[in-house]
Write a structure and sequence with these properties.
With 640 residues, the protein is an alpha+beta fold. 59% of the residues lie in helices and 18% in strands. It has four domains: 225 residues; 106 residues, Beta-Lactamase, CATH 3.30.450; 102 residues, PAS domain (Beta-Lactamase, 2-Layer Sandwich), CATH 3.30.450; 162 residues, 2-Layer Sandwich (Alpha-Beta Plaits). It is built from 23 helices and 15 strands. The longest helix is centred in the N-terminal third of the chain and has 52 residues.
Length: 640
C-alpha cells in the first residue's frame, strides 16, 4: 500500500484520536509487532534457506542416482562404488533436511495451515516412494540399470519436487497478505504520532519492503531451480488444440526446438504422433480426476518420434481460468532398452525352452528350469522349484553339490563337469552328465547347469566292464580247477622276480604233480581224472596263505609261488602238503600221492633279461620235481 493511500484512509482520523495514547501504543507495537515481524522475517529467511538446501539435496540425489545407473551400464565398478556411497549419504542428508524443515514449519501458525500440508505430502512421497527406489538402486543397482531405467525414480522425484512450488507460493502469499495487514494498521496509528510516528512508519515500510524483496528473490530462485531440472515442466490451456502458457528449458531440449518462442507458438495437438489418443480425451481425464498420468508418443519439431511419460494436474490460474500443470519425461531410451530386454528374454526362452537337453538355474533351489529338465525329473514345476537342489540326487553326490553351491554363492566363478546319480519322482534311476558354470542372475551369483541323460551309456559301460572282467577272469583262470592258469602265473612271476632282483627279497617256487596220473586216467577214465584234479586243487587252495599264488601249470602239474619266503620254509610247506595229500581220502580214488620240487630264487637265475631269469627259475624247480620222481615219487626235492 502506498503512503498517499494511507493518508486517504478512514482509519487516519481514528489515529488522531488515539494520539494521547501514542507512547504506550508505540511501545506495545514495537514489542509485540515490530520485533515479532523481525523474528518472523528471520524465520522466513531460515525457511527459504532450508527450502533451497532441500531442493539442492533432491537435485544432487537425482544426479547421483543417474550416475549409479550410467556407470553400472558402463560396468565402471570404481565409479559405481563411489556413486553408491554418495547416493547413500545423500539419502540420509535429505531425510534429515525434510525432518528439520517439517519441524520448523510447525512452529509458525500461518505456515502450519498453508505450507505444512504440501510439505507433509512431499515428505510422504520422498519417504515411501523415492527412498525405497534409491535403496533398491544401492542394493541391486545392476538390476535397476537393466529393468527400472530410472523411470520410477524420475516420476517419484517429480512428485516430491513440484510440491514445493505450491508450498512456497501459498506460504509466501499468505505472508505477504499478513505483512500488508500489519503495514496498514501501523500506518493508521503512526500518522497520528507526528514526527516520531512517521519515523516508526518509515522503519516499518523499510522492513516490509526488504521482506517483500527477499520473498520475490526466493520465488525467483525456486523457479530458476525448476528451469534446470532434467525433466520437462510446462503449463498449458485446456482447449482441444492446446497452447503452452509456460515451458522450462528442458522442454525445448526434448522437442528439439530452436528456443522457447518456437515451442510456445506450436499447438500442443500438432506434437502428437499419428495414432495417439486425442488431446480432448486426455484433458477430460485430467479435469475429471484432478491428476492424471499416462504414457504416449510425441513428435519433435524435427519430426522425430519419441516416447514420453506425462503427469498433469488441473487447476485455475490467478484470473480463474482453467489450466494444467504438467511434467514430461523423455523415456525413448528406456523404451528401446525395454524392447531389447524383452527381445533377449524371448530369445532366451526360445533357445532354452526348445532344447532337448535339461537346463536349469539354481542357488540352493531351482530358480528356472526348461521343459526338458522338468520332464526329466518328473516333478510338477511348482514342486520342483520348492525342493532343495541336492534332494534330487543320490546320497553319495550330495556333499559335492552342497560344497559347489556354497562356493558359487560366495562369488567364486568356476566351471564344473561331473556325472551324478539321480532318481526321478517315480523312483527311476538315472545318470546325468552336468556342465555347470557360475553366472549372475537377479543380482547374485548362481549356477547355470546343462545336463545330458547318459543312463543308457553308463549302464552299457557297466555291462562292458562286467564282460571285460569276465573275459579277463577266463583268460587268467584254469577253466577246470578254477585256480590261476599258466598265463597268469607268468605275469605274476614277472613282477615278483623284478622285486626280488631289485630289493633282494626271498622268493620260492613249489612245483608238484600227481604220481601215476596216466594210470588213473587209463583205469578210471578222463572224467574221473578231471574230478580228481578239481578235488586236489580245492584241497591245496584251502591250505595256502593269502599271499601265495596257486596255478595249474599243465596237465597234472601245479605251481605254488611263495613271495618273501626262503627255501627252508618253502620246503617245509611242500612236505606238509605232501602228507596232507597222502592222508586225504579222495572221493573217486582211495589213495593219491604227489611228488614235489622246491627252489628259492637266487644268483643262479640272474642271467639275461627278466624272461631268461624266469625260465631259469622254472627250469630249476622242474629239475627238482624230476629228481623226486626218479628217487621213488611221493617225496620233496630241493633244487640246485
Amino acid at each position: 500500500m502506498r503512503f498517499s493511500e494511507l493518508i486517504k484512509s478512514k482509519t487516519f482520523l481514528f489515529g488522531i484520536l488515539i494520539l494521547t495514547a501514542y507512547i504506550v501504543i508505540s511501545a506495545i507495537i514495537y514489542n509485540s509487532v515490530i520485533l515479532k515481524m523481525e523474528n518472523d522475517m528471520n524465520a522466513d529467511n531460515n525457511i527459504q534457506l532450508e527450502t533451497i538446501k532441500l531442493s539442492n539435496s533432491i537435485r544432487l540425489t537425482i544426479d547421483s542416482a543417474q550416475d549409479v545407473v550410467y556407470f553400472s551400464r558402463e560396468n565402471d565398478k570404481k565409479r559405481v562404488k563411489t556413486s553408491l556411497l554418495k547416493l547413500s549419504a545423500l539419502i540420509g542428508v535429505t531425510n534429515k533436511r525434510f525432518e528439520e524443515f517439517n519441524k520448523n514449519l510447525e512452529k509458525f501458525p500461518f505456515l502450519k495451515k498453508t505450507g505444512l500440508p504440501f510439505e507433509n505430502k512431499a515428505y510422504y512421497d520422498w519417504k515411501n516412494l523415492i527412498t525405497p527406489i534409491l535403496v533398491t538402486i544401492i542394493i541391486h543397482h545392476k538390476i535397476m540399470a537393466k529393468r527400472a531405467f530410472m523411470e520410477p525414480l524420475f516420476i517419484s522425484m517429480y512428485k516430491a519436487g513440484p510440491n514445493y512450488a505450491p508450498l512456497i507460493e501459498s506460504a509466501f502469499e499468505h505472508r505477504i497478505k499478513d505483512a500488508l495487514y500489519f503495514h496498514l494498521i501501523l500506518n493508521l496509528i503512526f500518522i497520528a504520532g507526528f514526527f516520531l510516528f512517521f519515523i516508526i512508519l518509515i522503519l516499518f515500510i523499510f522492513n516490509i519492503s526488504s521482506k517483500e524483496l527477499k520473498i520475490k528473490q526466493s520465488e525467483k530462485k525456486y523457479r530458476t531451480l525448476v528451469e534446470f531440472l532434467p525433466i520437462g515442466v510446462y503449463q498449458a490451456t485446456t482447449d482441444g488444440k492446446g497452447r503452452f502458457i509456460n515451458v522450462n528449458d528442458y522442454m525445448v531440449t526434448i522437442f528439439e526446438a530452436s528456443g522457447k518462442e518456437e515451442l510456445m507458438n506450436t499447438k500442443i495437438a500438432d506434437l502428437y504422433a499419428p495414432g495417439e489418443i486425442m488431446r480432448v480425451d486426455i484433458i477430460k481425464n485430467i479435469i475429471k480426476k484432478g491428476t492424471y498420468e499416462f504414457e504416449g508418443k510425441r513428435k519433435t519439431l524435427k519430426g522425430r518420434i519419441i516416447d514420453v511419460y506425462i503427469a498433469c494436474r488441473f487447476k485455475k490460474d490467478d484470473y480463474g481460468k482453467d489450466i494444467i500443470d504438467c511434467v514430461l519425461l523423455d523415456i525413448t531410451k528406456e523404451k528401446e532398452l525395454e524392447k531389447k530386454l524383452k527381445e533377449n528374454e524371448e530369445l532366451f526362452s526360445t533357445i532354452f525352452n526348445g532344447m532337448t537337453e535339461g537346463v536349469y538355474i539354481n542357488d540352493t533351489r531351482i530358480l528356472y528350469a526348461n521343459p526338458a529338465a522338468v520332464e526329466f525329473f518328473g516333478y510338477p514345476e511348482k514342486e520342483l522349484y520348492n525342493m532343495n537342489i541336492w534332494d534330487l540326487f543320490g546320497e553319495k553326490d550330495r556333499p559335492v553339490i552342497k560344497a559347489n553351491i556354497e562356493r558359487r554363492l560366495n562369488g567364486e566363478r568356476f566351471y564344473f563337469e561331473y556325472t551324478f546319480h539321480t532318481f526321478t519322482k517315480k523312483g527311476k534311476e538315472k545318470y546325468i552328465l552336468f556342465h555347470v558354470q557360475t553366472i549372475v542372475y537377479q543380482g547374485r551369483f548362481v549356477a547355470l547347469a546343462i545336463f545330458f541323460d547318459i543312463t543308457d551309456k553308463v549302464l552299457l559301460e557297466r555291462e562292458l566292464e562286467k564282460e571285460k572282467l569276465r573275459f579277463q577272469e577266463l583268460s587268467e583262470t584254469d577253466p577246470l580247477t578254477g585256480i590261476f592258469n599258466r598265463r597268469k602265473l607268468d605275469n605274476i612271476l614277472d613282477g615278483y622276480v623284478k622285486l626280488a632282483l631289485r630289493y633282494n627279497m626271498p622268493l620260492s617256487l613249489i612245483m608238484f604233480d600227481i604220481d601215476h596220473f596216466k594210470e588213473i586216467n587209463d583205469n578210471y577214465g578222463h572224467q574221473i581224472g578231471d574230478n580228481i584234479l578239481i578235488e586236489l586243487a580245492n584241497l591245496i587252495k584251502t591250505n595256502l596263505r593269502e599271499t601265495d599264488f596257486f596255478a595249474r601249470f599243465g596237465g597234472e602239474e601245479f605251481m605254488i609261488l611263495m613271495p618273501e619266503t626262503n627255501l627252508i620254509y618253502a620246503k617245509a610247506k611242500a612236505e606238509s602238503l605232501r602228507k596232507l595229500i597222502e592222508e586225504n581220502v579222495f572221493k573217486y580214488i582211495y589213495r593219491l600221492t604227489c611228488s614235489f620240487g622246491v627252489v628259492e630264487y637266487g644268483g643262479k637265475d640272474n642271467f639275461g633279461n627278466t624272461q631268461d631269469i624266469i625260465n631259469s627259475f622254472i627250469k630249476r624247480v622242474d629239475n627238482a620235481l624230476y629228481r623226486a620222481k626218479e628217487n621213488g615219487r611221493n617225496r620233496v626235492e630241493e633244487g640246485f
